[in-house]
Design a protein that fits this description.
Helix content: 25-40%
CATH topology of the largest domain: Alpha-Beta Plaits
Structural class: alpha+beta
Distance between the termini: 38 Å
Number of helices: 10
CATH architecture of the largest domain: 2-Layer Sandwich
CATH class of the largest domain: Alpha Beta
Radius of gyration: 23 Å
Number of domains: 2
Largest sheet: 8 strands, mixed
């Protein structure tokens, strides 16, 4: 059965990120060692196969000028058994021509080899309008896509997000000590502070849930930065001593009005529930999708069971 694959999306993003960051070993190690490996470029004659591709891919991309900008504009990945594929588009501009951006398209086909995803086929291209190539404008597919968009419900949107849950650990002990009115005031002040931090880091404060909150972010990096800032702010607060659990998971969510739904939301909540006081835990998917893992200190992962989900789940802790 074919299904969307966040795992493959993360692996493919890692391979593509190795190009502008000049990491030839990463490019090489994520490619198959088999003779069936294929590499298709955008230039005339750029169709190669076998181990020459794996050994030469670093040098091939190494001569590319430094990027001024490199923005992902489209990404998706799917898997079916031991095979999978990913498709990306990026808008790129080189440092020596920053005012001349262009679009680059990449398709990567993967196979599982010794339990690891490896690239077995790469196809990259720079799009040329069909009217320049064939002399005619081929608009049939574009017209079908436009027609389909008109049937998409305006109050329901699907998209990629990092979902974060926070929860006050010691609320049952603090509430009786302070009294309901004062405790409610402190919780409201706490939520207000969280909203400022979340929005400052590019997130959306979705809702409060009892003593906890739910928020969403466009990227894992923004979610982690917000989580760390929240713990830091809580630590120096002049109110009652509050301990928080924070959980983050990343993937496709469905948004209706101002709320979010889906497996990603449920898993993020479960991750928060198994975190220790004043601890940030995140899924392995979130960890793999961080733009620059060196920006954070990840502790050794732990394997846990999550209520409502089958099997063991690898979670990372972060300092």
């Amino acid at each position: 059965m074919t299904k969307a694959s966040l795992e493959l999306l993360a692996v493919a993003r890692r391979w593509i990120a190795a190009i502008p960051n000049k990491r030839p070993n990463e490019l090489r190690n994520l490619m198959s060692e088999g003779d069936h490996l294929r590499f298709v470029g955008s230039g005339d004659g750029e169709l190669w196969s076998g181990q020459a591709v794996r050994e030469g891919v670093g040098a091939f991309f190494g001569v590319i000028p430094p990027f001024a900008t490199h923005e992902e504009t489209f990404a998706e990945a799917f898997e079916n058994g031991d095979t999978g594929w990913a498709c990306f588009t990026h808008e790129i501009a080189f440092e020596d021509r920053p005012d001349r951006p262009f679009v680059m398209r990449n398709t990567l086909i993967f196979a599982l080899e010794d339990a690891a995803w490896k690239v077995v086929h790469r196809h990259g291209s720079v799009p040329i309008p069909n009217i320049e190539f064939t002399g005619t404008e081929q608009s049939a597919i574009a017209e079908l896509v436009d027609a389909a968009k008109q049937d998409f419900s305006l109050d329901q949107r699907e998209g990629f997000a990092s979902v974060m849950f926070t929860d006050i650990v010691n609320s049952s002990g603090l509430a009786p000590m302070l009294g309901d009115r004062l405790w409610s005031s402190e919780v409201a002040r706490h939520f207000s502070g969280l909203r400022v931090i979340i929005e400052r880091n590019g997130g959306q404060f979705v809702k409060s849930l009892g003593d906890g909150t739910m928020s969403s972010f466009p990227s894992p990096t923004q979610a982690i930065r917000a989580a760390r800032a929240i713990l830091a702010a809580t630590d120096i607060s002049d109110g009652p001593a509050i301990s928080l659990r924070i959980g983050i998971h990343t993937g496709d969510v469905v948004q209706t009005d101002e709320d979010f739904f889906g497996t990603v939301v449920n898993k993020a909540a479960r991750i928060a529930s198994v975190a220790a006081p004043n601890e940030i835990r995140l899924s392995d998917t979130t960890r793999e999708m961080v733009d620059d893992p060196r920006a954070f200190r990840f502790l050794e992962p732990v394997s846990v069971r999550l209520k409502g989900f089958e099997g063991d789940h690898l979670l990372y802790r972060i300092k």
